[in-house]
């Protein structure tokens, strides 16, 4: 039994955080020196208010934290939709239907070979008005369609890695096709997929910053608006970057913990 | 025994091809309810394909297969009413690695026989006792030895209360010292009246448990006879050559 405070797992999580922190330190140091040379006047004390404001002891979220919540909301919802789309596309790719395989293939190539920004514009200016979608819906659908294409390849690899014998065993026990997938195949696929899926979730959080171009008040938009108001370019971009970093590192830490629990089971 | 009245499995002129390679050649075979059949033959002779055509993991290309009175044409899969009626035990066990032994056994009865969890687990435990591993119910498959895993797989098939049980080389991936425990368990099942079809190279086992031994070569049934006759007085030259080959060491030892 590995104690929770020792072993390779802790080392891994620590290195997860220490290495980016060290890199960030070096970067900040370089930026500081550079800023000195151009006589940039640092005003870090003003940044606090953009994170949290307190009025007479009552704390409320500042613009950056509000933006973070929007970013998280979009990321979580589109991650869920990504998994649905990814699984559906992978099943179509592996199906015996020629039309199904063609559709999945076409979707994959279309998404992979056009820029995300253009996809977002097409969805927002063309599909959105036709379907009557608002900004948030458009943003979630666009990110999920984009990430779903990559995730479907992960699902496909995961499904193909399951030995045929597993499906045959379920078949010969009389499990229906759906039950076979639900109880036998997918739980095994998801276990293999956890590490690459973490990457997808991290990409999704980062890619969500692109929704700032369609007037959604996510973390990136909030940062840009604050800079327009205050001209604190260095402080705010560094803060915004640090917030994204904390979120994505937290995600990979959670995945490492989940994987460890699985290994211990 | 196999009589002319109502075979539980019947093959009439069944052929199958993998691409241009013909794996089954005009197979005619009748298996009576409750019979225990052993199929042997060199590798690539079509024996696995033959039993996989019985539960429709493979479909045939020509001829007719009848299972429990249901007629199955070329390409036809197992119909709903036969689902779970034909159990199979595989060479590589194929237990579900992410489930406990108990869950491996209780899943299909809960989903298909309408058993509640408690009853399915009681049934599962009863069958685990029968294959002498009742104490392993809470373990995961990879914590068991090969012989234990195969016995779990047998118990899992039994939980669906099948009419027919197919064994596809059940001991071929086992270490020698574990073969015995698995064969003993299969032998104990012959009292139950389940129809059993077993592909195996264990000739001592074939002689002891089977009602009939079938020898296949190049996709054909070369010889089909009661075990004593099959081993002591094989009619076909090819059967003699095969038996000579695999019994060589036993005989000279």
Question: Could you describe the 3D structure shown?
Answer:
The complex is a heterodimer of chains A (265) and B (253). Chain A has 265 residues and is mainly α. Chain A is 79% helix and 3% strand. In chain A, a hairpin with a 2-residue loop joins strand 1 and strand 2. In chain A, helix 8 packs antiparallel against helix 10. Chain A is globular. With 253 residues, chain B is α/β, with parallel strands linked by helices. In chain B, the strands form 2 sheets. A 6-stranded mixed beta sheet of chain B has the order 6-7-8-3-9-10, sandwiched between helices. Chain B has a 4-stranded antiparallel beta sheet with strand order 2-1-4-5, covered by helices on one side. The model of chain B has no long low-confidence stretch (mean pLDDT 92). Classes of the chains: A mainly alpha (265), B alpha/beta (253).
Major sheet summary line of chain A: 2 strands, antiparallel
Q: Pick out the low-confidence regions of chain B.
A: none
Number of helices of chain A: 10
Q: Note the beta-strand portion of chain B.
A: 25-35%
Please summarize what this structure is.
Chain A is mainly alpha-helical and 265 residues long. Chain A has helices spanning 7-37, 48-51, 63-94, 98-112, 116-131, 135-161, 164-172, 177-207, 219-230, 233-264, and strands at residues 52-55, 58-61.
List keywords for this structure.
heterodimer, A: 265 residues, mainly alpha, two-stranded antiparallel sheet, globular, B: 253 residues, alpha/beta, 6-stranded mixed beta sheet, 4-stranded antiparallel beta sheet, 8 helices, 36% helix
List the helices and strands and how they pair.
The complex is a heterodimer of chains A (265) and B (253).
Chain A: H1 7-37, H2 48-51, E1 52-55, E2 58-61, H3 63-94, H4 98-112, H5 116-131, H6 135-161, H7 164-172, H8 177-207, H9 219-230, H10 233-264
Antiparallel strand pairs in A: 1-2
Chain B: E1 7-18, E2 21-32, E3 36-40, H1 47-54, E4 62-67, E5 70-72, E6 86-89, H2 101-112, H3 117-130, H4 146-159, E7 164-168, H5 176-189, E8 195-199, H6 203-209, E9 212-217, E10 220-225, H7 227-232, H8 237-252
Parallel strand pairs in B: 3-8, 3-9, 6-7, 7-8
Antiparallel strand pairs in B: 1-2, 1-4, 4-5, 9-10
Helix pairs in contact in B: 2-3, 2-4, 3-4, 4-5
């Amino acid at each position: 039994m590995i104690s929770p405070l020792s072993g390779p797992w802790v080392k891994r999580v620590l290195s997860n955080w220490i290495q980016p922190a060290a890199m960030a330190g070096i970067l900040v140091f370089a930026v500081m020196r550079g800023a000195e040379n151009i006589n940039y006047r640092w005003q870090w004390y003003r940044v606090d208010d953009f994170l949290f404001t307190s009025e007479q002891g009552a704390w409320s979220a500042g613009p950056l934290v509000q933006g973070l919540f929007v970013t998280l909301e979009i990321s979580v919802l589109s991650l869920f939709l990504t998994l649905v789309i990814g699984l559906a596309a992978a099943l179509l790719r592996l199906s015996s239907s020629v039309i199904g395989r063609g559709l999945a293939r076409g979707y994959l190539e279309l998404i992979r070979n056009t820029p995300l920004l253009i996809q977002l514009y097409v969805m927002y200016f063309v599909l959105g008005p036709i379907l009557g979608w608002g900004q948030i819906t458009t943003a979630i659908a666009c990110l999920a369609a984009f990430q779903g294409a990559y995730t479907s390849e992960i699902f496909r690899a995961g499904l193909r890695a399951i030995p045929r014998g597993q499906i045959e065993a379920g078949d010969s026990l009389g499990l229906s096709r759906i039950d076979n997938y639900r109880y036998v195949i997918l739980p095994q696929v998801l276990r293999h997929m956890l590490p690459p899926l973490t990457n997808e979730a991290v990409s999704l959080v980062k890619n969500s910053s692109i929704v700032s171009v369609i007037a959604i008040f996510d973390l990136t938009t909030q940062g840009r608006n604050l800079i327009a108001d205050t001209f604190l370019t260095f402080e705010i971009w560094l803060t915004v970057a640090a917030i994204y970093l904390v979120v994505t590192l937290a995600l990979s830490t959670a995945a490492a913990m989940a994987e460890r629990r699985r290994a211990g089971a | 025994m196999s009589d002319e009245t109502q075979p539980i499995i019947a093959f009439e002129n069944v052929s199958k091809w993998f691409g241009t390679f013909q794996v089954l050649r005009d197979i005619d075979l009748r298996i009576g309810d409750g019979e225990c059949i052993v199929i042997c033959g060199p590798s690539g002779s079509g024996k696995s394909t033959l039993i996989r055509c019985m539960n429709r993991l493979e479909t045939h290309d020509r001829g007719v297969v009848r299972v429990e009175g249901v007629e199955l044409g070329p390409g036809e899969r197992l119909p709903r009413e036969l689902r779970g009626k034909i159990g199979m035990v595989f060479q590589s066990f194929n237990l579900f690695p992410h489930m406990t032994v108990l869950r491996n056994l209780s899943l299909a009865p809960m989903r298909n026989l309408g058993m509640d969890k408690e009853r399915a687990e009681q049934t599962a435990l009863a069958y685990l006792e029968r294959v002498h591993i009742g104490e392993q119910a809470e373990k995961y498959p990879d914590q068991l030895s090969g012989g234990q895993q195969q016995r779990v797989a047998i118990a899992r098939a039994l939980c669906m209360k099948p009419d027919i049980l197919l064994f596809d080389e059940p001991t071929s991936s086992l270490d020698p010292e574990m073969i015995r425990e698995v064969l003993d368990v299969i032998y104990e099942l012959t009292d139950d009246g389940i129809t059993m079809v077993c592909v195996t190279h264990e000739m001592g086992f074939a002689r002891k448990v089977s009602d009939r031994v079938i020898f296949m070569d190049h996709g054909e049934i070369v010889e089909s006879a009661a075990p004593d006759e099959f081993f002591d007085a094989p009619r076909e030259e090819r059967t003699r050559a095969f038996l000579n080959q695999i019994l060589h060491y036993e005989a000279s030892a």
